[in-house]
Design goal:
The structure is a single chain. Helices cover 15% and strands 39% of the residues. By secondary structure, the chain is mainly beta.
Length: 110
């Protein structure tokens, strides 16, 4: 019986706020949310953000993501994730690799 974290299957890139792009403002937003048993994002909330405009754009993007749900003992379970969203002028948006020190973290919720 397999156990695994949710696997993203549709990731929407956040829109970089134009005013922040023009003034070279960068930063990372940390978003916490639940991936439910159907793979949809629920209860997304900002945990940390350098600017309210980044927060708004990060939530807009995360709420469009879909996943293969996490599993425990072979059954789909609700899973809480913490996902960093990086707003950088020098690199493209990407989901961090699982081995990264600043990676997505997960915990099963009831």
């Amino acid at each position: 019986q397999a156990n695994h974290h949710p696997i993203p299957i549709k990731v929407t890139k956040p829109i970089y706020p134009i005013a922040l792009r023009m003034t070279n403002v960068t930063g990372t937003v940390k978003v916490q949310f639940v991936v439910d048993t159907t793979g949809r994002v629920r209860n997304a909330e900002i945990v940390e953000s350098p600017h309210p405009a980044f927060s708004e754009r990060a939530l807009e993007a995360i709420n469009h993501w879909t996943f293969i749900p996490g599993q425990k003992n072979g059954h789909a379970v609700n899973t809480r994730l913490l996902q960093p969203i990086n707003f950088s002028l020098s690199e493209n948006f990407r989901i961090r690799e699982k081995n990264s020190s600043d990676n997505q973290t997960a915990s099963v919720t009831k």
